[in-house]
Each structure stands twice: as C-alpha cells, then as structure tokens.
Amino acid sequence: MPVNTSVIYLYDGSFDGLMCCIAESCRQHELPTDILADGCPQLTLHPTRRIPTDRSDARKVVEIMQNRISPAAVKFVKMAYLTYISKELPILQFFRLGYRYGKRVFDMHADETVCTLRKAVQHLRNESHRFKQFVRFTEYDGKLIARIEPKNCVLPMIAPHFAERLPNEQYLIYDKTNRLALVHQPGHSAILPLDSFEPDLPGEAEREFRCLWKLYYDTIGIEGRYNPKCRMTMMPKRYWTEMPEFDSENDTRPESGQLPPPSLHG
C-alpha cells in the first residue's frame, strides 16, 4: 500500500513528465499531496520534489497501463491530460486503481476518481466537437488564421478534423487559453507553443466577405422560431467572440442598402 506523504511533485507540464511522476510514486511507494506543472502557483509549506522527464520511464508507464488495464485506458488518460481540471492526482489514482483492478476500473462509476475523470473527458469531447463547428478563419495573403479561447486543450482533438477538411491549405489556429498554435501546411501539421498572437486587421476583401456572411446569417433566421435560450444551449456565448456573425461591426451596410461586391482578386 502506498504511503500518503506531504511532498508535492513538480514536473515540466508534459504528458511524459506526468507519466514520470506516476513512475516516481510507484518506485517510492508513496502518494504525493499534489502534482504541479511548471507555472502553477506554489503557495505551500509542503516540501517539493522536482521529477525529471525521462521518456524511457514514461514509455514504461504507458506500456504497463496498456497491458495491465487496456489500450483504451491509455487513450482515456491522454484525453484526461488535455482537460482543464487539476487532473494530475486523479490520473495517478486512476493508474493505481487500474493496476489493481484491470479494465474493471471503467465499471467503477461510483468511484470519485473515475467519475471526476469521466466528466472531465466528456467535457473535453463536447468542447472539441463544438470547436469543429465554430472555428472561423480569416484570410491573410492566402493563409487562413483563426483564434479560439477554449477551457480545455482542444487542439490535439480538432487537428485531424481540419487536416482532413483543409488538406491543401496553410492555416493557423491559435489557442489563447493554453498559448498553443496548430500550424498546418499541406502534408504536415504541428502544435507549437506560442505565448501571444495578434493578427493584423482584416483587409477590405475579408471585411466584405464578413458582411456577406453576417447578412446570410441574419437572412436565413426565421423570426417566428427565434429562441435565444435554445441558441445559448447549442452555442454558448463564450464562443461568440471570434465568430463574425455575432460581430456588430460586420452589420454595417451602405446607405443604399446594398453591400459592396466582394473583391475576388488574387
């Protein structure tokens, strides 16, 4: 049985680093008070221990998880790692439960650890599904740029979708919350750290297309079926900030009542 300790593990924030924290816990037969990634506040009197990232140790933990529990457990833990909750300790506890009970751990619906991670992963899946629909690109010199502000780290979840939908495009999706960028060129995608990103103001042609899109969005609405409560359920307001159909600046029509024709040059 592992011994509860007052020590706090510190790691580099990577998935491999978290797996190394699990390896350290198993080696020392101890349960840390907490596991904190770099950059997290550390206002504590508890002793801390820096856990170095060793890919060999991380690979062994993943192999044990795959063989002792199931391949589905590895996928589940990787998704749990992408969630916005304080997931480190629950993932460690899930690993220990799975090591003891095998794949039956997924049937332990009343267990607090399993329940917490299930809810977090479901939230990640739901949010990822929404961003597949709600990402709005702006064109800059033939490149597509989008910004999102998710709660979870959704870029690894949505990357295959956009690579399949836009295989021949050059695009960048910037995650303001996690300071990451999904960068795609034909044949290759990568998720890279990016502290900040502020694109230039859209050009005239882009603004014209935004006005057209806003006009289309407003025109297809059926007044008799207007239901703001339903819309808030299906499309929560926090997604609106980067969606041109909700930007009042795209609602400016000339006094003639006609939108200027879009510029299709280039």
From TrEMBL:
Pfam families: DUF4130. It comes from [Clostridium] methylpentosum DSM 5476. InterPro entries: DNA_repair_put (IPR023875), DUF4130 (IPR025404). This is Putative DNA metabolism protein. Residues 88-245 form the DUF4130 domain. Residues 245-266 are annotated as: Disordered.
